[in-house]
Each structure stands twice: as C-alpha cells, then as structure tokens.
Write a structure and sequence with these properties.
This protein is an alpha+beta fold. It has 2 domains: 8-79, 3-Layer(aba) Sandwich (Glutaredoxin), CATH 3.40.30.10; 91-185, Up-down Bundle (Glutathione S-transferase Yfyf (Class Pi), Chain A, domain 2), CATH 1.20.1050. The chain contains 7 helices and 4 strands. α1 links the parallel β1 (8-12) and β2 (32-36). α1 (18-27) packs parallel to α3 (68-79). This is GST N-terminal domain-containing protein. Belongs to the GST superfamily. InterPro entries: Glutathione-S-Trfase_C_sf, Glutathione_S-Trfase, Glutathione_S-Trfase_N, Thioredoxin-like_sf. It comes from Apatococcus fuscideae.
Length: 188
C-alpha cells in the first residue's frame, strides 16, 4: 500500500470514484489520482491493488478502503471539518442521511439498468426503453418534488454542498449521459 501525506484515489473514467474526487476538490484537499482505463482494471498491476478489479480504492495514512459511498463518508468526516456534514439528531441530518444513501439505493439502480440496456443497444426495443424511462422518471420525480419547495437553493439540504450532494451528483450525471433516454425528463 502506498503511503504518504496525500490521499491516493484509484480511479477509472466515469466511475463512482467521481464522488470522492468532487468532494476532495471542493474541500481543497491536496490528493493524488491514479487513473486506469476500464480494461486495465483486470491486469496484474491493478489486481495487486484490488483483487476484484474494482474502483474506487482510497489509500490514506495507512488506511485502504473501497466503495464510493464509504470513501465519500470517510473523507467528509476526516477532511470536511463540519463543512459537508450536518449535526446528528437534527432534521437536516435526517435529510442528509436520506439523500446520501438514496443516491446509491434508489437512483443508481435504474440508471445502471438503463445504461446496461443502452450500451447493449437493446434500448431500441420499445418495451425496454419505456421501462428504463419510467424507472428514471420515477426517481427524478422524487427529487423534483423535494427540490420544488427550495426556491433558488442549489443544493439538496442547505445553501452549501454536503457530501449528500456529491453522492447524488453522480447518478444524475450518469443519467444525463443517456441522451436518448434522458431527453424526455430534462425538465427536472
């Protein structure tokens, strides 16, 4: 495991590692990225970092961990100094926990399913395309209803970004990239 004073994040293009990258950049933390092409994650060099060939992996001061949500939470708590987390026991913290976990639990599944069908070109099947669009529309409606009462506020919970915003940002970027599916729900 590499060590040093800077956190090291193993990354591959358009992966969930964007979450901790965005967070570290927002916090102004000096960190290193070791980027790999998707196909290189199964080569011996990377398999020595993670035998499963998965990203992201974080190495920080002797700690090695995986899973973008866990990494994002760890980094927010370690480096955020309360700027991107909210005090436990408050209504804001409850909303923070909800959105932080909803990003992966509810938003990623339809996005990944749609991306899978889109990448395999099965989105040309009108039934598959309609089902994927309904799943994406359903989750975006939840977000839209929650944000509707917040006026000009740019972030989910407060007037500044929290780690929950970074968690939610990735599925929204991923869904936006599905142009032929997402174009019908861009009003959200």
């Amino acid at each position: 495991m590499e060590s040093g004073s800077k956190p090291l994040l193993y990354h591959s293009e358009w992966c969930r590692s964007l979450r901790p990258i965005w967070l570290l950049a927002e916090l102004g933390v000096d960190f290193k990225i070791k980027a790999y092409k998707w196909d290189d994650l199964q080569k011996p060099e990377y398999l020595s970092v993670d035998p499963g060939g998965r990203v992201p992996i974080l190495e920080d001061a002797g700690i090695k961990m995986k899973e973008s949500g866990a990494i994002t939470q760890f980094l927010a708590e370690k480096y955020g100094k309360g700027r991107v987390t909210l005090p436990p026991g408050t209504p804001e913290h409850a909303a923070y926990c909800q959105w932080f976990h909803m990003a992966e639990a509810s938003f990623m599944e339809p996005g990944v399913a749609a991306l899978f069908h889109w990448a395999l070109d099965s989105a040309k099947d009108p039934t598959v395309k309609a089902r994927a669009l309904k799943c994406i529309t359903d989750v975006l409606q939840v977000l839209d209803k929650d944000l509707a009462h917040k006026g000009d506020q740019q972030y989910l919970i407060t007037s500044h970004p929290t780690a929950a915003d970074f968690m939610m940002g990735y599925p929204l970027v991923m869904m936006q990239d599905l142009q032929d599916i997402y174009k019908d729900v861009t009003g959200f």
